Structure formats: structure tokens, C-alpha cells
UniProtKB/TrEMBL annotation:
Pfam families associated with the record: SpoOE-like (PF09388)
InterPro entries: HLH_DNA-bd_sf, Spo0E-like, Spo0E-like_sf
Annotated GO biological process: regulation of sporulation
Name of the protein in question: Spo0E family sporulation regulatory protein-aspartic acid phosphatase
MF terms (GO), sorted A to Z: protein dimerization activity
Coiled coil: none
Domain of life: Bacteria
Species per Swiss-Prot/TrEMBL record: Domibacillus enclensis
Length: 64
């Protein structure tokens, strides 16, 4: 269970880092620039992974 916890914490850190990268890209290149959109899509994917990991942790806790 500790490994799962660390996994979600790692994802949280990656999400925050990616969020900052996306914000900076938006400031430099504009919100509709291709690079900003790419960073936004990467952020979306990380958030989906985080939500999935949280669900798996909850399901594992309920089963255990």
C-alpha cells in the first residue's frame, strides 16, 4: 500500500510541475499556441492517471 501512496504522490508532483510548464508556455506563446495545447494535453493525461490511481487505491482499500 505504501508503494501506491508514493505513486499518487509522485503523480501529484508531476501534475504540479506540468501545470507550471503549461502556464509558462501560455504566458510566452499564448493560450492557443500549439506548444501550450500540447502541455495542456500532457497535463490532462497526468490528471487522468492520477484519478485512476486514486480509484485503484480506494478499491484496494475497500477489498482489503
Amino acid at each position: 500500500m505504501e508503494h501506491r501512496s508514493a505513486s499518487t504522490e509522485t503523480l501529484r508532483k508531476r501534475i504540479e510541475a506540468q501545470r507550471q510548464i503549461m502556464i509558462r508556455a501560455g504566458q510566452l506563446h499564448g493560450l492557443t499556441a500549439h506548444i501550450t495545447i500540447m502541455h495542456s494535453e500532457t497535463l490532462d493525461q497526468l490528471i487522468i492517471e492520477y484519478q485512476y490511481a486514486k480509484r485503484m487505491n480506494s478499491a484496494g482499500s475497500a477489498a482489503g
